[in-house]
Structures are given as C-alpha cells and as structure tokens.
Design goal:
Helices cover about 45% and strands about 15% of the residues. The protein is an alpha/beta fold and about 250 residues long.
C-alpha cells in the first residue's frame, strides 16, 4: 500500500522551480502535502506549480528570499491559503564561483543574503508562527558538501553552507522547547539541469564518487523528506550528507 506521510500538512519549499527543490516539492505533493512553491523566477515558479498541481495541491509564490520581509509574506501566504504550516524547507541558494583573491564584495554580499539571510529569516518567520499557534513543525536547510570539504573557487559558497549547518544546531536551543525540529541536508554532486550543462559532469562524478555515480535529485529529496517526517521526530540539529561517499575520500575534479 502506498504510504503518504504528509496528508493534511502544509509545506513551503524555496528555490523549487527546478532541480533539487522541484524534486523535493514533487515528492511532498505525491505524499499528500499542500506545497507552497517558491522561486525567484516568477515564470518558473508558476510553471512548476502548474505541473505539480496535476499530482496534488501546489501553489506558486515567487519572490526573493534575500529580502527579509518577503519571508514573512511567504509564511503568511502559506497560512492564509492552507490554514496551517507544518514544514519549511529553506532550499533557495545561489552559487557564484570565483577565486578568493579576486572575489568581489557585491558577489559575497549577494551569496550571504540569499544563502544565509534567506534561510535565517524564513526559519524565523516560520518559528514565530509555530510557537504562537502551539504547533510542532520541521525546518530543513539545504547545505552542501562544500560546507565540509574545500572546493576550488567556492570559498564564499562553502562558507555559507557551513553557516546554515551551524544555524540548525543553534536553533535546537531556541526551538526545541516548542517541539520544532531543525536539521540540514548536504547534497554532493547531483544531476540537475544546471550541472548537466557541463557535458563532462556525469562521467567526471561517476569516477570521483565511491558509489559510482552522482546523485539523482530524487536521492536528495527522499533524504530531505525523511528529516521533515514524523519518522525523524527525535532528530534535530543534525546534517545528513548525501554524496555517495565523496566527502569520505574527497577527490577533486580539478
């Protein structure tokens, strides 16, 4: 019998127009959740929500999570349209490659605003709602293996991903008394629309990954769904690395 873990639950997924975020949103919809799908790109957000609406309930809410006030608007929208909020997945993030010695201030601040600020203020807005309404809930941040291992030209990005993992730990102190779990997931190489623009990506990461291939988006999504499900109710402040064993040996693609 098909198992649906998220019936009668409402979830926000940011950065979900495509890639890992889209697959997480899709998996939640298939398991019965009402999903509020966010992406910076309005057209992409609406197109993705229409597609997922063929499978269940999904509503678009495009906008920029780098704007602190937007995150409250996103939470308010979810509550107004679904009557509740149970799960928040702060998945939105940007990757701006660049060597440390040449990295520009505007690039650094943009990465910080989206990757850290977006996660921080979305969790804050959701936490306030959950506490005020005496509801338990689950918050999940998307980190990266680059928050664990150095990777060429990703000092700024990797720094932000390490930061959201530590944020999850700190929020254990703030939110555990209210029954709110906070965790992070750290994907490794994953076959998404963006990474597959590189014609060598599949072969390169198949050779570098101990398990023999890069992850599929669904590999990440299923791990994410576990962490926000009742099956993980006693897990908080943790980061689950999903990388096929790459970070255990860390061979560089360069």
């Amino acid at each position: 019998m098909e198992r649906k873990r998220f019936v009668n639950k409402s979830a926000i997924v940011t950065g979900a127009g495509k890639g890992i975020g889209f697959e997480i949103a899709k998996s939640l919809v298939l398991e019965g959740a009402i999903v509020i799908l966010n992406d910076l790109d309005r057209e992409l957000s609406e197109k993705a929500a229409i597609e997922l609406s063929q499978l269940g309930e999904c509503l678009p809410f495009p906008g920029d999570v780098a704007e602190p006030n937007f995150n409250k608007e996103l939470v308010d929208f979810a509550i107004s349209r679904t009557g509740t909020l149970d799960i928040v997945m702060a998945n939105a993030g940007i990757t701006l490659f660049g060597s440390f010695l040449d990295y520009q201030p505007e690039d650094l601040y943009k990465v910080l605003q989206v990757n850290i600020g977006g996660a921080f203020f979305l969790a804050q807005a959701a936490g306030k709602y959950l506490i005020a309404n005496k509801k338990k809930g689950a918050i999940l941040f998307t980190s990266s293996v680059t928050g664990h291992q150095a990777h060429k030209d990703l000092a700024a990005y990797g720094m932000t991903k390490a930061a959201v993992e530590l944020l999850a730990k700190h929020l254990v102190l703030e939110l555990s008394p209210y029954g709110i779990n906070v965790n992070a997931i750290a994907p490794g190489a994953t076959l998404t629309e963006r990474t597959l623009e590189d014609p060598t990506y599949v072969k390169t990461w198949a050779n570098l990954t101990p398990i023999g291939s890069a992850a599929k988006p669904n590999d990440i999504a299923q791990a994410a769904l576990f962490l926000v499900s009742d099956d993980a109710s006693h897990i908080t402040g943790q980061t689950l690395v999903v990388d096929g064993g790459w970070s255990s040996v860390s061979p560089s693609p360069f």
